Amino acid sequence: MRLLPGTDAGVPHAVFDGFVSSLEFFEHIGLAPAEVVDLATSGAARALGIDGGTGRLAAGLRADLLVVDGDPLTDLAALRAVRLVVAGGRVVSRLPGAS
Question: Which of 1, 23, 41, 89 lies at a C-alpha separation of 20 to 30 Å from 47?
């Protein structure tokens, strides 16, 4: 069995900001924050069969990035403090306090 975090965002009454809560649920059932981040990134890419081109930070791979306050590998709540979003190699959102 493979575990993957996800969301029903895009359907009525399901919001995108519920994703962090779904990640925190995995921690609640015993996974370490670093394991949860792995499931949400490289684990999801593997499940979709696209891990040859995305899912982790490495030279030559595509990556969209969130820059957050804190370390989500030790505290998933850091994902609630997004400061910068980079998608397709461009800054698409810069929040207050981001440099």
Answer: 89
Exposure on the CB side of residue 54, measured as CA atoms within 13 A: 14
User: Per-residue pLDDT for the chain (99 aa), expressed as one digit of tens each?
Assistant: 678 887 766 677 766 667 888 899 999 999 999 999 999 999 989 998 999 998 888 888 888 888 999 999 999 999 999 999 998 888 988 877 655
Q: What are the start-end ranges of the H helices in 1-99?
A: 19-28, 33-38, 44-48
Task: Annotate 58-94 with b (16+ C-beta within 10 A) or e (fewer).
Answer: eeeeeeeeeebeeebeeebebbeeeebbeeeeeeeee
